[in-house]
Design goal:
Layout: H1 5-28, H2 31-47, H3 49-60, H4 64-85, E1 93-96, E2 101-109, E3 112-116, H5 122-135, E4 139-143, H6 150-162, E5 169-171, H7 176-185, E6 191-195, H8 198-208, E7 214-218, E8 223-227, H9 233-245, E9 255-261, H10 262-276, H11 297-312, E10 316-319, E11 341-344, H12 351-354, E12 361-367, H13 370-377, E13 382-383, E14 385-389, H14 393-402, E15 407-410, E16 425-426, E17 429-430, H15 435-441, E18 443-451
Parallel strand pairs: 3-4, 3-6, 4-5, 6-7, 8-9, 8-14, 9-12, 11-12, 14-15
Antiparallel strand pairs: 1-2, 2-18, 7-17, 10-11, 13-16
């Protein structure tokens, strides 16, 4: 159904008005009262976990197992985590005894928060924004991706039952160009939290600049894995397969450049390709498949185009797209499926090594020295995440310090403590998310001085 830009603008206007009207009551509630409501909402989503997982899988294309074990449990955890953390923040206090003064800080919610979330982890990332925003006392207008909005709608149906007052959480369904832009440009929305592409973030920055809005931008990545010759390949290979191809490679944290020290390059490549060939792509509702469908026909064509460009540049495709046959059930043969694809002998300046592909494609290249690989790993415009594999403790600390990445995992991947900052450097974003960082983003700080 087509909805005009004018209608969507009016819907955003109505949502902002509802949020603005609800703000005085919601912001006046104690952190404990808000915490109890967030926990209730978490309980309700968890009660319907299977229904949410089925909907997320069908809507996004991810496997039912991934939705069941990652997406929906994390959405539940997001509400519980911020329900707890909001109860434990402290403020600062200093004394100037010679002046007879005491200084302290206080924090207050900002107002109406505009939240824009992507299609790859729909409810997971939507709740990662809603939970801290409302825990801090803000009201929100959220815009999930128009491509994957079913679970957002399902969550809306639980808000009243959880005790969320009318107008605290408002969800607008529509495209980024219409609904998203109307939200970004609205003068009564003082802060925007966005997860998505760097290109869209530039547009948000330009449109929000006249209003001096506070921005949190979590953007793309071109994440390297660095495998030194003393790495434990029995742990490294299965983990790097997962970091490359989980959720069809449609995670901003996925590995798309694998640098392997020359002494073990051949062995790593042989074993990695052999294991990648075992990954099964197919019907997302089949609990035995490893990868489901990509998000759309257009996205599948885009990902495939990178493989063709790599081949045109002289790279070798060792498995996956164009090399192995993809056997699909009859009912899925017109779907947007793709096998895990490994490319070797790629030049660092290739688009496959420089641009975010956001699909099940990873490039494996050799390196000789630590100094060399750090320089090559940093030679992209992005700086979101990296992994380092080595048994040398001094080396992993040293390399981690020098990598231009907001997150560095060593001998593991995607192990997250939500208390700590999440976000990227360079074109991978502005700001950080996490217990303390989200609290600071979604509140205004004030310094108060008392002379006694």
């Amino acid at each position: 159904m087509y909805i005009s830009g004018k209608i969507l603008t009016r819907l955003v206007e109505a949502a902002v008005k509802a949020a603005k009207n609800a703000f005085p009551i919601w912001s006046s509630k104690s952190p404990l009262e808000r915490s109890q409501i967030l926990n209730k909402l978490a309980d309700l989503i968890e009660h319907d976990l299977e229904a949410f997982a089925q909907a997320e899988s069908k809507d996004q294309g991810k496997t039912i197992m991934f939705a069941r074990t990652v997406d929906i449990p994390r959405a539940v955890h997001n509400f519980r985590f911020f329900a707890s953390s909001i109860l434990h923040h402290t403020t600062e206090c200093t004394e100037m005894a010679s002046m007879g003064c005491v200084h302290y800080t206080s924090r207050a919610p900002v107002g109406v928060a505009g939240l824009i979330s992507p299609w790859n982890l729909p409810l997971y990332l939507l709740t990662w924004k809603i939970a801290p925003a409302i825990a801090c006392g803000n009201t929100v207008v959220a815009k999930p991706s128009e491509m994957t909005s079913v679970t957002a709608w399902m969550m809306c149906k639980l808000l009243e039952k959880a005790g969320v007052p009318h107008g605290v959480v408002n969800v607008v369904f529509g495209t980024g160009a219409k609904a998203g832009e109307a939200l970004v440009c609205h003068p009564d929305v003082p802060l925007i939290s966005f997860t998505g592409s760097t290109l869209t973030a530039r547009r948000i920055t330009e449109k929000s600049a006249p209003h001096c809005k506070r921005l949190s931008l979590e953007l793309g990545g071109k994440n390297p894995a660095i495998v030194f010759d003393d790495a434990d390949l029995t742990q490294c290979i299965p983990t790097t397969l997962r970091s490359s191809f989980a959720n069809q490679g449609e995670i901003c944290l996925c590995t798309s450049r694998i640098f392997v020290q020359r002494g073990i390059y051949s062995e790593f490549l042989k074993r990695f390709v052999a294991e990648a060939k075992k990954w099964k792509a197919g019907n997302p509702s089949d609990p035995t498949v490893d990868m489901g469908a990509l998000i759309s026909k257009e996205h599948l064509e885009k990902v495939r185009s990178y493989v063709k460009k790599a081949q045109a540049e002289g790279a070798r495709v060792l498995c996956g797209e164009g090399v192995d046959s993809l056997a699909l059930p009859t009912g899925n043969q017109k779907g947007y499926f793709m096998l895990p694809t490994v490319i070797a002998e790629v030049k660092d300046e290739s688009c496959c090594m420089q641009e975010e592909i956001f699909g099940p494609v990873t490039c494996v290249v050799a390196f000789d020295t630590e100094e060399e690989v750090i320089e090559r790993a940093n030679s992209v415009k992005y700086g979101l995440a990296a992994t380092v594999w080595s048994s040398n403790v001094g080396r992993v600390h040293r390399v981690a310090q020098r990598l231009q990445s907001g997150l560095v995992w060593t001998n593991c991947w995607l192990v997250r403590d939500l208390n700590l900052p999440f976000g990227g450097m360079k074109a991978s974003g502005i700001g950080r998310e996490g217990a303390k960082d989200s609290y600071e983003f979604f509140t205004e700080v004030k310094t108060i001085t008392i002379k006694h």
